[in-house]
Design a protein that fits this description.
Elements lengths: L1 H14 L7 H8 L1 E2 L8 E2 L7 H7 L8 E6 L5 H14 L4 E6 L2 H18 L1 H4 L16 E4 L2 E7 L3 H4 L6 E5 L14 H7 L8 E6 L8 H7 L4 E6 L6 E3 L5 E2 L4 E3 L6 E3 H5 L4 E3 L7 E6 L9 H14 L1 H12 L12 H6 L14 E9 L2 E9 L5 E10 L5 H11 L2 E3 L5 E10 L5 H8 L7 E7 L20 E5 H12 L10 E2 L10 H7 L2 E8 L2 E8 L6 H16 L3 H10 L3 E3 L6 E3 L8
Parallel strand pairs: 3-8, 3-15, 4-6, 4-7, 7-8, 9-15, 16-20, 18-23, 20-21, 21-22
Antiparallel strand pairs: 1-2, 5-6, 9-10, 9-14, 11-12, 12-13, 16-17, 17-18, 19-20, 24-25, 26-27
Length: about 600
């Protein structure tokens, strides 16, 4: 009888279902952090960042289908994603899909984050076959395990979004997703359709936000419970989120919204926090968290980063708001007018004002002319319009290009007599004279004269990698024109000369900056349009005024980005005369750009 009881006891132990655990418990029991991807390698501890517990455990709630995390950087959201994957690989095997903005990012995540987790977490080591096995189900973008699989795709890949039913959908950095996956439509919508066949499906969307009105993660957050992490005041106990507006720079403290007492970062963070919702849960929980709550960010560093971003201008400040506060950037909606810019013109009395450290140019190709703008650049990416010239003629004829080439080789002078030549030129190849542009640029690449082609879309970087897939084998840079216009319009709003990004223009008539130029520079505006219910920012023309000045400033700015100069260093070298050299028989000293420039 004892033998029978023992036998049945063993059978019951084998057949007994595992204890009911949630994701944070699994992570605390099983997860190991890898050395190459964590500053704190070893056993996972949810208590290290207690706000993560509810973010993960609500996924186990059968009443919750959608989970939204709108957060700053450095709060551990990537580790949360990995814990979710590990849990469903080991404890509740399921088919999963992880969608990232691009296929390259998906491959990088697989190699740098997912593979090390599987390698270093004992509970997962035997779940996935060795990738070196000949018949292995473990590939870079598809890892199979008993009872399920995890597939990684890019949001720009329609094929990856439209195959295999999945139960768990993870979408990381959704605000960086393209508006459409090829011609298939919204990538997030395509991925979500693949969960339809599962009654217990889960959809987890994670991202830092971007622009107000266009941010997908903000829209998803506002459609959920809108929860914020609250901490009690060490003095009065009043529950409140840590807010940037309540940070006091002078003593690096956070002021209580109720009693107005101030306490240090560590006094606040040692309190026991909780998530408080602004709306009732109807199957969708959404969380917002900023870097002030992170155990990996010090408040004094956040303040220092803010001061640095504010000093560098609105472009850098926008990134700080997105990645540190986890909030969308809201444009003031005020657009600079041509009248405002006309009033800003100043007298140079020379080609180059003293603040100019290097000059670039843009060339626009029209059916009956070539237009050129030369732009000077200084520290903080302050800019000076140096000259706007129009060369009329047939772009199919070499004579017209020779005129432009002569102009691009011109030396521009300071009041002192020192001179600069153009350091880089971007020539538009997107019109009817593509081959002529290639033929012009190819033999002049040693002078950094490059062909460019504009491409719209928020997901297109301002300056992409050069390719040579053309008959002439000329270097061709793809320009994200929307990103460039965003940068330019932000700089046009800078009103004070001592601020980064301020734009100068000359009043001298012969330099070409008249009312027609400024009408063209301000000829487009940013609007939000809706496609199949999804917001999309587009640049549209305000009138029939030609927009060549806007395009040309974009090209000249792209030329600066291709050079990628250290302008601060160049300014210091100018003070010591380090970038002067003898360049003529008369030993006349001339400035040349020979140091501080890459590209």
């Amino acid at each position: 009888m004892n033998k029978t009881e023992k036998l049945f006891t063993k059978i019951v132990k084998v057949l007994k279902p595992p204890p009911q655990i949630v994701i944070s418990q699994w992570a605390d029991n099983e997860r190991r952090l890898s050395k190459e991807s964590s500053a704190e390698a070893g056993r996972w501890r949810t208590s290290r960042a207690p706000y993560q517990r509810e973010m993960m455990d609500c996924i186990n709630d059968p009443e919750v289908e959608n989970i939204v995390l709108m957060t700053s950087s450095q709060i551990g959201k990537t580790e949360i994603v990995l814990n979710i994957i590990g849990y469903y690989m080991d404890y509740d095997p399921s088919p999963m899909l992880l969608v990232m903005p691009t296929l390259d990012l998906a491959e990088g995540f697989s190699k740098d984050r997912l593979a090390p987790m599987i390698r270093d977490t004992p509970a997962l080591q035997n779940k996935v076959k060795d990738h070196k096995t000949r018949d292995s189900d473990n590939t870079l973008l598809h890892k199979k395990f008993p009872g399920g699989h995890v597939t990684l795709v890019g949001a720009n890949s329609p094929a990856g979004l439209s195959s295999r039913p999945i139960r768990i959908l993870l979408a990381d950095e959704v605000d960086r997703f393209p508006a459409t996956a090829g011609d298939e439509g919204d990538p997030l919508g395509l991925a979500a359709k693949r969960t339809k066949t599962f009654w217990n499906r889960k959809k987890i969307y994670v991202s830092t936000p971007t622009i107000k009105g266009e941010s997908r993660i903000e829209a998803e957050y506002e459609d959920g419970t809108m929860e914020q992490w609250h901490l009690p005041c060490p003095e009065c106990g009043h529950l409140q989120p840590l807010k940037w507006s309540q940070i006091r720079f002078e003593d690096v403290t956070h002021e209580c919204a109720k009693c107005k007492e101030r306490f240090s970062e560590f006094e606040w963070k040692e309190q026991t926090g909780q998530w408080l919702a602004q709306r009732e849960c109807q199957g969708k929980r959404s969380f917002h968290l900023n870097a002030l709550a992170s155990p990996w960010e010090r408040w004094e560093n956040i303040i220092e980063d803010f001061r640095d971003a504010k000093q560098k201008g609105p472009e850098v400040l926008k990134v700080w708001v997105n990645t540190t506060l986890g909030e969308t950037w809201e444009d003031d909606g005020v657009q600079t007018t041509e009248e405002d810019l006309l009033k800003r013109r100043e007298r140079y009395d020379c080609d180059l004002p003293d603040g100019v450290l290097l000059i670039t140019a843009g060339v626009d190709v029209q059916d009956d002319r070539l237009e050129v703008e030369v732009v000077g650049w200084g520290t903080g990416k302050a800019s000076w319009g140096i000259g706007y010239q129009i060369f009329y003629g047939d772009p199919a004829q070499k004579a017209l290009w020779d005129q432009v080439d002569e102009y691009l080789q011109k030396s521009f002078s300071y009041k002192s007599g020192d001179q600069l030549r153009i350091s880089c030129v971007c020539v538009d190849s997107g019109g009817h004279y593509t081959q002529e542009v290639y033929k012009f640029c190819k033999p002049r690449e040693h002078r950094r004269i490059y062909a460019v082609k504009g491409k719209g879309g928020k997901d297109v970087p301002f300056v992409g990698k050069a390719t040579r897939n053309n008959r002439e084998k000329a270097a061709l840079f793809t320009l994200g024109v929307d990103a460039g216009k965003e940068v330019l319009m932000t700089r046009l709003k800078v009103e004070y000369e001592d601020k980064p990004g301020y734009c100068h223009w000359p009043i001298e008539k012969e330099k070409g900056y008249d009312s027609v130029y400024f009408e063209g520079l301000c000829s487009e505006k940013r609007v939000i349009k809706y496609y199949k219910g999804r917001p999309k920012i587009e640049w549209v023309k305000k009138s029939s005024v030609p927009n060549e000045p806007l395009d040309l400033r974009n090209y000249a700015t792209a030329a600066l980005e291709i050079l990628n100069p250290d302008l601060e260093r160049m300014k210091e070298e100018n003070k010591t005369g380090a970038i002067y050299e003898q360049t003529s028989r008369k030993k006349k000293r001339r400035r040349v750009i020979s140091k501080g420039v890459t590209g």
